[in-house]
Amino acid sequence: MVKKACCEVNRTNENIKLATIKKAAEINLNKEDMIYLEGGSFLMGTDDQEGFPEDGEGPIREVHVDPFYIDAYAVTNKEFSQFVESTGYVTEAEKFGWSFVFHLLVSEKVKRQITQVPQQTPWWLVVNQASWKQPEGPNSTIINRMNHPVVHISWNDAVHYSNWKKKRLPTEAEWEYAARGGYKQKKYPWGNQLKQDGKHQCNIWQGHFPYENKAEDGYIGTAPVDAYSPNGYGLYNVVGNVWEWCSDWFSPTHETNSIKNPTGPIKGHSKVTKGGSYLCHQSYCNRYRVAGRSANTPDSSTGNLGFRCAANAK
What pLDDT does residue 20 have? Predict the structure, then answer.
């Protein structure tokens, strides 16, 4: 389905082979800026008419999660820089030598050098040298974006960072439980209305996608990880801003009975991503709802793909 293509662009589709990654060093778990959640049962998924049944958003099902910790914020450029400085880690985007960048964020000079564009999603450009430290390719920088979420991070990269922090990626169930902020079956982390008192609550697209972003929420690309108000559990920017990796393999089908600590299929092709991004818009990719979901291959990276970590409570 064409609508899905705005969210899913991957290296496997470009026939590029997965590179081997060295193991990162481990340090003691630091729960600073993590939120402790007691867990329990909640209603996961949605049957909302705005949803995408083909994505596996439904059916609504009762799920139980045990207590866990989760980061209040997505991992920032500053934090990822510290990881790289400590370990010498090289991301997959850097090893491949390219990543996907949204066309409106690329300079005219870089655009003139583009030779590859995915046919289904021509607004994604294959930009040489694009990576977490050069988000829009050559001559771009994160110097003034250290408090923004790190992007161009593959699932494999996110796992290595998480291991280094002695944390892990959240399961999809944990992520959705945390993102709901204590609400039962609300569309967004703050309720059912996209705006509250006329104010934007997240960083998404305003305008005619993919040609004009009016940036009425204040941002064309990523926003700082602490932008907007936190949800009821104290998590920031769980919808909009950047897609966030989960640990689960993706499947469009689910068990309908009560499930305890589900972890997804035992194998698959793509990993679950949640939350939508600054490129999502109701007219095209309305996946910034809490139950929205997408997927990408573990070695894929884009300019709107990041992560936050979780940790066991015991």
Answer: 25
Phi and psi angles of residue 92, each rounded to the nearest 5 degrees, phi first: -65, -35
Question: For tokens 């005619």, what's the residue?
Answer: 208
DSSP three-state, residue 93: helix
Burial 167-188 (b: 16+ CB within 10 A, else e): bbbbbbbbbbbbbbbebebbbb
Beta bridge partners of 63: 42, 259
198 CB neighbour count, 10 Å cutoff: 5
Instruction: Please give the angle made by the CA atoms of 161, 163 and 168, to the nearest 5 degrees.
Output: 95
Query: CB neighbours of 173 closer than 8 A, spacing ≥ 6?
Result: 44, 63, 65, 259, 261, 262
Q: Which band of pLDDT confidence, cut at 50, 70 and 90, is reported for residue 51?
A: confident
State pTM to two decimals.
Answer: 0.91
